[in-house]
Amino acid sequence: QVQLVESGGGLVQAGGSLRLSCAASRSIFSFNAMGWHRQIPGKQRELVATITSGGTTNIADSVKGRFTISTDNAKNTIYLQMNVLKREDTAVYYCYAAAQWRVYWGQGTQVTVSS
User: Dmax of the chain from CA atoms?
Assistant: First the structure.
């Protein structure tokens, strides 16, 4: 069973930065892709950023230019660097890992941006 453990969420003022981490229990090369979704209460879960096993990244238009996704292969960890945070970035952020036959999810980490 794959485990994804997220960390790095918290409370930050608008304009500030946070870095989320997602540590996987096995090599990230075993996944086709990994990334982050977020969910605002009352809204559908939104894809924020993905990175494939080949290193291709995709960033949602709503956060492009402010968020970046990266990996540390030796630590089996992916990161979401979030800069110039806005109040509308407030959400629970979920890490995911897409294997051949299923998708694994982390437990979620709360990010709250205050004005």
Answer: 42
